[in-house]
Design goal:
351 residues, 12 helices, Rossmann fold, binds 1,4-dihydronicotinamide adenine dinucleotide, alpha/beta, 13 strands, 17% strand, 7-stranded mixed beta sheet, single chain
Amino acid sequence: MLEQIPSQTHEAVYRADRPDLGVTFFIALHSTRLGPAFGGARMWRYQTEADALSDALRLSEGMTYKNAMAELDVGGGKSVLWLREPGKASRAAIFTAFGDILEELGGRYISAEDVGTSVADMQVVRTRTRHIAGLPPAEGRAGGDPSPWTALGVFCAMQAVLDDAGRPWRGVKVAVQGLGAVGGRLCGLLAEAGADLIVSDVSGDRAMEVAERYSAVMVDPSLILRAPVDILAPCALGGILNPQTIPDLNAQYVVGAANNQLATPEDGDQLAQRGVLYVPDYVANAGGIICAVEEFRGRNADRVDEKVRVIGPRVGDILRLADQQGRAPFRVAQAMVDDILAAPVLARVEA
Ligand code: NAI
């Protein structure tokens, strides 16, 4: 069923066309250097085949960095389920087929839920293969929706930024863009810590609900990126730090959950020149994948909690190095990942 697509940048890229299901599957294995490629399955109605494939390539590369930085003994991969004809087949049929693809890959790639997929979908996948995570917690094993862990990791990253600046939470203004599974929970943690919130979502109802619950100020989605705040938390879309948005930012720090926030690395340099401290997304938002990998290894929620909270000290280390070296934190983080990927693998395998 799987056809390999030649790639210069990735270890292996596969496609499987299933016109009977109205779906084309792309599976991108960016790197298995640290272990099996690990990363979620995104189901989306892309406009073109090129959009679907490039998302799989870009996201799987991001997973290599995220997993390496989180000190996980796995590589980077991602799958994209391109919904070409929505409604043609049931979810059960689509995820059964996806399970068969994972089984055919024989454990070189392990998947989990992502945008457009759910714990229930992963349970269907599990009926065909064991190379899957994101299942409900069971018998002391972690699992389920990874979003609370992602929110906790982002919160810990913000805590590190404030600790570095010697600031307490009280009175800190945070703008949260996107109040979904991660952004909504992040607001809860921030409100509890004593931060003042400015929130926005394209769903007005959702924004209203969060604003009421946490006494937050609600603003139009067109205004959230330029809100005058201490911390901006992008929790909706990628690519939002770009030449159009950067000149208007009014935040001192950017720390959020969205993947691939920088449109290009040069935009990271632009941010640094404007004096905005950007914590790399793949460092801050690793909580979800930490949960999935630990679940896959059969470990419990306490272990996940412990590993997610390490994101704070990790960000602290990056900020200190950035300060010492006079470089932007995202450049320092990139160099750290390059070192991890270049080091002998045995030294990193957990006992
Ligand atoms: P979600 O789909 O539950 O929430 C996203 C929210 O953003 C929705 O409420 C949506 O209406 C809103 N939104 C979309 N465009 C917007 C805009 N222009 N302005 C304001 N709001 C907008 O997604 P989730 O799970 O909360 O993830 C958020 C981001 O974090 C995504 O980029 C995701 O890829 C990333 N991420 C999520 C992880 C997880 O564990 N869920 C793990 C790592 C990254």
